[in-house]
Amino acid sequence: MSQRITLITGGAGGIGMACAEMFAAAGHSVALVDRNPDVHRMAAELGERHNVATVGFVVNLSHEAEVVGLARDALAWKGCIDILVNNAGIHPKQADRKFNLEEVTSEHWAEVFAINLTAPFILTRELLPQMKARGWGRIVNNASTSGRTGRINGSTPYTASKHGLIGLTRSAAVESGQSGVTVNAIAPGPVLTQRIMNAPEYRSGKAQMVRYGKPEEAAAVINFLASEAAAYVNGAVYDVNGGTLMA
User: Fold this and answer.
1) pTM for this one?
2) By CB atoms within 10 Å of each CB, which of 21, 133, 157, 212 scores lowest?
């Protein structure tokens, strides 16, 4: 794969940072996006490790104006974005369990949708035209097994937002497929990120999994979907769950 310019949301840890390491190791320029202010330092260290251009953007993806500004600033950084990885997502829970539907407030619902679905929509809307104009682009969305089912491990806002993200993936794929741009998604099962380690079921030892996935295992599928080898893959949702869901 030729050297590309990549934008990764949720890039300060977990699957996002694992993606960044793979892209940087391949010689790509990498822009990391996160609400964690340490993303500036992480981007600089990533660039030093792999001798590539990197930049960090501190953004609250629940604020539309900041997301639009992110797209503008990312394009100004290198003149284009070749690969967009919509990886950021939130899954708020109570201290000991997930929220039941009747406990979900409108504010909670709106925040989850803003980050998990609206931000990917805005970034796709803002960055897709320049990909189409150049005849090449890759957009990969991080959905979830919760977006493939109504599984109990996902709260209602999270599950609904991930179903929506898969719908966005497929709709955008139909619109962009003849322009050299592909849009795909992965649907990971539980991957051992900081969010999972903070989850009540993990801390209680009650998680019913043979093992958790590694961030690098999910990132490897994203890396493939962003490659030249996946040029004929469009509108797909790749399950990355160790066989816990087969559809």
Assistant:
1) 0.91
2) 133
